[in-house]
Specification:
9-stranded mixed sheet, binds 1-O-pyrophosphono-5-O-phosphono-alpha-D-ribofuranose, binds uracil
């Protein structure tokens, strides 16, 4: 792991605590959904840490003062369907004015290759700082493809936020898109023969939406 310096692992106790409950196979759909949303919000706090700010003049009930607001480029959130949807509301709580684009990808269970089925992005995607959301970074195929869609449409500033990553996925994204910073709550041990992250949390989409 240490050789990829584009990964930030968020060790905050609240994030790690929620992650543990999320992983537990006895955690039900309702709690799983709530935790994914909460984790997205907490992770968003770190992802937005370096946004540029500018001073504006305001008037409090007591006096005039200068105070800071976020400046610079506008933000865009891009969940990878389905499971990335679970992270959108948490991120929007922090960045309510962000536009949201959707990229629909599913992983072919035999080949593990991503298959695109939907893509709808803000028209000014090239001018935005984009945050791609997906709880799981396994082989990295889905994230690499989603980031490429965005770059093909002119995007220049992209961050990737995953709750759990496998070392294989981190490597794949780092090699295909070295300009993209990855933010995760954990990098797990490995992938199993079916491309699932070990220990991971199972199938994020199924656990979020109660399918299977
Ligand atoms: C899951 C997950 C990622 C992808 C990760 O989605 O949400 O998008 O797998 O795997 P990869 O890194 O090997 O590409 P899945 O294909 O199960 O679709 P879903 O979200 O619709 O359930
Ligand atoms: N997708 C998931 O939802 N879970 C994994 O462990 C791997 C890919």
């Amino acid at each position: 792991m240490k050789q990829y310096n584009n990964v930030t692992i968020m060790n905050h106790p609240m994030i790690q605590h929620k992650l543990t409950i999320l992983r537990d196979k006895n955690t039900g759909v309702k709690e799983f959904r709530e935790l994914v949303e909460e984790l997205a919000m907490l992770m968003g706090y770190e992802v937005t840490r370096n946004l540029t700010v500018e001073e504006v003049e305001i008037e409090t009930p007591v006096s005039k003062t200068k105070s800071k607001v976020i400046a610079g480029k506008k933000l865009g959130i891009v969940p990878i369907l389905r499971a990335g949807l679970g992270m959108v509301d948490g991120m929007l709580k922090l960045i309510p004015a962000a536009k949201v684009g959707h990229i629909g990808l599913y992983r072919d269970p035999e080949t593990l290759q991503p298959v695109e089925y939907y893509c709808k992005l803000p028209s000014d995607v090239a001018e935005r700082d984009l945050i791609v959301l997906d709880p799981m970074l396994a082989t990295g195929g889905s994230a690499v493809a989603a980031i490429q869609f965005l770059k093909d449409r002119g995007a220049k500033s992209i961050k990737l936020v995953n709750i759990i990553a496998a070392p294989e996925g981190v490597k794949a994204v780092a090699e295909a898109h070295p300009d993209v910073e990855i933010y995760v709550a954990a990098v797990d041990e490995k992938l199993n023969d079916h491309g699932y992250i070990v220990p991971g949390l199972g199938d994020a989409g199924d656990r979020l939406f109660g399918t299977k």
